[in-house]
Amino acid sequence: QVQLVESGGGLVQPGGSLRLSCTASVSIFGLYVMGWYRQAPGKQREVVATISSGGATNYADSVKGRFTISRDNAKKTVYLQMNSLKPEDTTVYYCNARHIYDVHNNYWGQGTQVTVSS
User: Fold this and answer.
1) Using an 8 Å Cβ cutoff, are 91 and 115 in contact?
2) CA–CA separation, 104 vs 80, rounded Å?
3) What is the C-alpha end-to-end distance of the chain, expressed in Å?
4) Which tens digits make up the pLDDT trace of 4-62?
5) Coil, strand or helix at 56
């Protein structure tokens, strides 16, 4: 069973920064596209950023220029550096691992709360 363990959430003031981390217990990390998603109460889960094993990235328009996704394949870890945080970034963030060949091989972390407030 694949597990994704997230860390790094918390409370930060507007304009501040946080870094989220997610470590995956998969055998071959390079076979997974990694991503960060977020879900506000009463809303659908939305993609924040994704990164392929080769390092190709995609971002939601709302976070471009502020957030950076990266991965360390040796450590089987994906990161989300969040800068210039806004109150509207407040929500639960989820790590995702999606196998590049098997759509059923798709896993989620437990979620980590990010709160941006003064």
Assistant:
1) no
2) 24
3) 40
4) 999 999 999 999 999 999 999 988 888 999 999 999 889 999 999 999 999 999 999 99
5) coil
